[in-house]
Amino acid sequence: MKRKTKSIGLCLLLVLALLFCSCQTSAVKEEQASADPTVTAAAKDSVDDGNTKGSSEVKEDNSDKEPEYIDEEYVDEHYGSDEEKEDLSKYKKKSSSSKKSDSKNSDSKNSDTEDADGTESNGSTSSGEEASADNYYTDPVPEGKPDPVEPQDQTVDSSKQLTCTLYVECSTILNNMGDLTEGKEGWVPSNGVIYGPKTVIFSEGESVYDILQREMKNNRIQMESEFTAMYNSAYVQGINNLYEKDCGQWSGWMYEVNGWYPNYGCSRYQVQDGDTIEWHYTCDLGRDLGAGMS
After folding, report:
1. Per-residue pLDDT reduced to its tens digit, 16-36
2. Three-state SS string across 43-81, please?
3. CA dihedral 69, 74, 78, 79 (to 10 degrees)
4. Closest CA to 231 of 151, 143, 144
5. Backbone angle region of 226, left / alpha / beta, with phi > 0 → left and psi within -120 to 50 → alpha
6. Which among 139, 87, 69 is positioned nearest to 108, based on CA atoms?
7. What pTM value is reported for the model?
8. Three-state secondary structure call for residue 12
9. Are the C-beta atoms of 163 and 274 separated by less than 8 Å?
10. Is 210 exposed, middle or buried (0-12, 13-18, 19+ CB in 10 A)?
């Protein structure tokens, strides 16, 4: 029994001795490696060589690929070529001298639609062309009727005082009160007459719009308008707080001179001595006035 115990003890000592020797050997190798820089450099170089070799292989693989095919005809068809350039000359404005020379021909261009006062609608052309003196979307002026005079060509001579008659009314609304915008009833006179008829003084060269604007201001009657470049004229939106579409979809203001409803804007109609100017509110695009728009 004592021999067996002694043998086991010797075996344990031997195992411990072997473990101790192996630990010392590992420690010595680590110290040598840290002390000798050539070993570290060599190891690093071997790693770098491996990375360089790998990257060169990747580059070689990429160089072996065939270039991607581009269908140039498809690109030109769908995206256009660099050589194609849009012709912008059609957007250039004409000179003032050109406008003056062509002003008499401004009635040769037709408008697709006209608003209730016979001036212009706030639309845009499909061609994108700018309005100029020869394309203000004016229907042909009937024979014997005055041609429009462009506001930029208007010459007012205040030394020459003339007279005309002005009349503003909205009696058509009285027959369509059910269509009137709620709250507007108080602005409709019982007889439909807002102003006149009254003889007024104006200067030679003034337009229908000039006279209406001045008389409404002098008599403290509300009026609102805007200038529409497409038709080169002011558009009367409302008088006495009665606006377009206040009494139906086709309602608004129209002007009449000497029994004729001009087919161009009120800023382009030059008033003559003795003219009779009437402004009427229509509830049906002029049809209820006997001047329906075609």
Report:
1. 777 776 666 665 566 665 555
2. HHHHHHHHHHHHHHHHHHHHHCCCCCCCCHHHHHHHHCC
3. 50
4. 151
5. beta
6. 139
7. 0.57
8. helix
9. yes
10. buried
